[in-house]
Structures are given as structure tokens and as C-alpha cells.
Amino acid sequence: MTHPDPLDELASAHLDGATTAEEAARVEADPDLLARVEALRAVRAALAVAPLVDDERREHAIAAALAAYDEQRRAPGAAAGSLTPLAARRHRPSPRAWRVVGAAAAVAALAALVPLLASLSPDSSSDDSATPAVADARTADTNAQVPVGAAESGANTSTTGPTAPAYLPLGPFQNDDALLQAIRDITTEEIAASTSGGIVPDPTACVDELVAGLPEGVTPILVAIATVAGEATAVVVTPDEVRVAGGDCTAVRVRAR
Amino acid sequence: MRAAQGGDRAALDALLRRHHDRIHAVCRRLAGNEADALDATQEALIAIARGIERFDGRATFSTWTYRVATNACLDELRRRRRRPVAGLPHDLDGSGSSDIGARPSAAIEALPDRLAIDAALAQVSEEFRLPVVLRDLCDLDYAEIAERLGIPPGTVRSRIARGRAQLAALLGPGNQRPTVARPTSHNDPGTP
Hints:
By secondary structure, chain A is of the alpha+beta class.
């Protein structure tokens, strides 16, 4: 890979307001550099020019979205407030039978993994600050969150207790790497051999968004909650990758599984 | 928006129409070609429709839709990378966007128009295009871009610089950087 021209990089950083005071002074004092900045500003302006939109395509996309909305509101599990078949929440339900099987397997895995993960989770005493987030999640009031499957109006207004949508607690981890290692250590056989256990509500309000953001045709094999560096974090595992998000869900971290 | 959250289908329809073109613009610029942009736009609209009841007002609705669109498009690009590719990607062979007849950048001499921008973006590799678009169109800062793309912030800064420089060169004489006869630490003919 080649490196950018240092002057281009300086001009570009200046456009972004990402230069030091010294660098900024250098740019401001150099007409050539200022000209570069203006050229890059023109590129930015060019990118803001709206691309052409085909009316038929627009209608098609909107119709597909409305159909997905209708389908979600019709979903039997939407008002149930219980664990929802994950694949049923995918963008475009596929008629292919394997997806139904995949959904059932995903739900079974969710209900089955706790004993395994109890032994898999890192020593909680090593991260005291992180532990309460998961523990508290077991009794968290989910009124502020929209749980998986609670799409019908009012379905999420009283979802605490045994019928609350819930996810597997993975425990506290120091960082993403530790979380990933734990996830990688879970084998399919171990998932299948596990028995049911406790599950927790989503303290992050990110799980739903993570699952909804999966590529078409990709079914999660594990949906869980962890605490990473003290932050409640949603975790969605697919056959190929692990997606995690915490905070306000804006930063989805995608790592290979 | 509240009506749509409450189950009003017509309100959702209106919301989607209002935001469609802007979402498409984000996806079009990120994807670099119309086919992937259309898929990503549809995925984004579906995600918005499915997730609108989850929108909690912490950000503006526009910001939220932007974020959903960006995620959907990046997902589409990741999915595309995983797919087996038969032959050249249709927009990386210099022909530009297939549906709107984009021209080769060499033919662009006037102020950049839609086709010129499409053609230029199609010629900038994804490695450089994504950070530029996330910065210049989506207004994400370096740290946010680094997190979205899984690269260090320093790399974001250099890739944005390269991407912008390539686009400036591709978008015609009016946007080409001034010729500056001064030595640099790199003598790379591939660097615009």
C-alpha cells in the first residue's frame, strides 16, 4: 500500500479540523496548502450532490419496507413478550425450510447455553465493576427498551418477570478480545448438550438493532448480553462473525468468528 | 413519527418517502455502484420500518435513519465481499454505474455532475471510498469511522486523504489540486 502525500494528508486533516495548532498555522500561512484544502472542500461538496433515483426502485423499496412492517405487526410472538424465533425477525422471511430450522435451533441454543457459559465466563471477581451490570440485568426494568419481538403496541409496557424477552448472560469481560475468545470456545456440540438456564432482559436496547442489521440470509446462532470493560453490551453471533454494541448502539463492532 | 411508531402505516409510508432519497444517497456513495446501493437502500428502509418502534428519541430521527442506512450499506458491502465473484465487479471495470450510463472520468471536464461523481467514486477503491463518504457525507468523526470500519484512527486520516486526493484528480481540472513543485517524503506515482 502506498502512503498519501504528506501535504495532501495535512490539507485533508485541516479540512476536518483535525490538525494541531502548529499544523493549522502552517496551512494557513501557505497558499498552496490552502488551495489544496479548497480543492478537497470541493470534493466534499461534490459528494453532497444527490444521486439520481429511479422512481420505480423507490416504490419497490418502500413497498418492501411496509411489507416488513406489516409482517412484524402480524407476528404471533410480537405481543407474547417471550423469546422470539430470531429468524422470524429477519428482514425478508424466506420460504426456505432451513431458515425455520435455523430459528428453532437459535431459540433452543438461547435456552440451553447458561450452564455452559456459567463455567465459561471469566472470573467475575476479576472485574468487579463489570459484574453488577449483568447481575442487575436479571431484574432490570425493561420499560425503557423495546424487547425482541415486542412489536405490537403496548407489548413492551409490562415485560418484566418470567415472560420478558431475554438473552443469554455471558458475564463480564475486560475487552472484546476476551469476549471473542470465550465465544470461539463454544462448540456446536456444547450448545446442543447444554440444558436450559436463566436468561436476562436486554439492558442495552441494542440487541434488536444488531439482529435487524444482520445481512439477509444470515441467522444468528447466539444472541446474548455481556459486559465489556464495564459497559453492558449486546452480542450477536453468526456462523461467520460476532457483532457487539453497547452505549447508544451507534458503534457496531464486527469481528470474525 | 409518533404515529408511525403507534402503528399508523400511512404515517410510516410518508416517513419512508421523506427519507428515501437521502438514504439512497448515502448508500450510493458508500457502495460506489447502483446495484449494491439499491439493495442497501431497501435493507435500510426495512430496518427502519422494523425498528421504528425502538426509536427512543435520544437522537433526531434523521440521525437515526442515517445510522441505520450506514449500517445497512456497510453490511451490504461486507456481504458482497463474502460472495464469490465471477469476473470483474460491474462497476470496477471503468464502465461506471450500469443503470445510468456513467462516463469514464477522463471525459469529465466541466463541473462535476451526478454522473461524474458516480464514475469517480466507482474508480476509488472501497478502502478509500468508505472513510471519505463516512466523513464527508455522513459527518462521522475519525474515531467513529475507525470503529465502524475496524481500523485505527490514524489509518482513517490517511485513507481519507488518499481518497479525497483521488476524487479530486478524477473530478476534473477544476478540482485537481494545484501543481506544487516541492519534494515530499514519498515518490509514489500511484498517489495523486
